[in-house]
Target: Protein kinase domain-containing protein
Amino acid sequence: MDVCVKIIKNNKDFFDQSLDEIKLLKYINKHDPADQFHILRLYDYFYYREHLLIVCELLKANLYEFHKFNRESGGEVYFTMPRLQSITIQCLEALQFLHGLGLIHCDLKPENILVKSYSRCEIKVIDLGSSCFETDHLCSYVQSRSYRAPEVILGLPYNQKIDIWSLGCILAELCTGNVLFQNDSLATLLARVIGVIGPIDQSMLARGRDTHKYFTKNHMLYERNLESNRLEYLIPKRSSLRHRLPMGDQGFVDFVSHLLEVTPEKRPTASEALKHPWLSFPYEPISS
Model:
């Protein structure tokens, strides 16, 4: 049997994070004995010459690398609507399972979704090194920046809905080949979100512990220019998901819009998202 062996850097932080991930994977795999929920399988782990080695199932490229290769090779487009629908269902089933165990993934992004089979369009969610239980003392620094939910940026309490936001960003990126909310800072990320999705609810701004870092008292978005040390207002450029996803059909755009609800209370859970009509739209079957 082919396996993947991950060698952990001999550094306390990496070591501690890897031990946490091993504990979580053992816990998750124990609750999914039949390997139904699209999460990486851990086979073993051991120490060798002062290094921790983790043995898990061997998978193929991650979605970021594969999308880049697919685009640059000039071959047939892989991420068609039927395949995006299949990937979405698998990701949501993985999240529904994790969330049912009380876990938040906390770092869902294209690099952390790996292909298991290209022909059957099967994927696995990996990298639970940043994951936590919803009951833990939640850290304010979670999620890779381009996939970070508004409530995390503003310093509000957050829950499993942050993974749903990340999935919306990932699907838009797989459809177009470009990061949906391109940014070089958290302030420019917020400007993109407001421009494409719409304004952030006043009550979220009022409650956010970090709102003052990005918004004036009048709720104007700003950023400090590091060269001049002056504050500069950021005026969000108006756009829309429909404009940003020209290759997506209307059902897909509606679905991504459903996931990218700025107010977490209005954003669906994984179970609710699985009931969206786009996921049962009868596309042509994926040929394996």
